[in-house]
Amino acid sequence: MEKNILEIVQAAAATALSRRARNAVILDLRKFPSFTNFFVICSGISDTQVEGISDAVLDELKDNWNERPWHREGGRDADWILLDYVDFVVHIFLEEKREYYNLERLWADAPQIEVPHVDPITEYEEDEEIYDELEDYDFDDEMLFPPQSSEEE
Question: CATH assignment of 5-118?
Fold first, then answer.
């Protein structure tokens, strides 16, 4: 069964948007002499968000599409993470770096493919295992609220 690469690319973009990525675009590079068929480009407002978007895309493509990147660049405290899946490349930038490199301008002749509409995750997903561990911990009230020393002593 042949994989529909465009569906996987759109899943990557949708996952980025679900993590509040900004201005996600998909560029179709198939008609150009290029090393890949598609670019997914998006940005975040902090290095933590850029890393979170990257982790979410990696998990989505591995868990639901059985895709793993051939190469990854960037990491913790990164202002640009690149996930190279050979047939497509996902670029996740800090906003300032995206403006500086401006890949959309470099590939201005490439048609853009519609990015699926996704509502960002708004609810905190609770990790019940962590809460169970906290319930088992015996908090010492004196540790949390040490006795106040009086100035009269």
Answer: 3.30.460.10
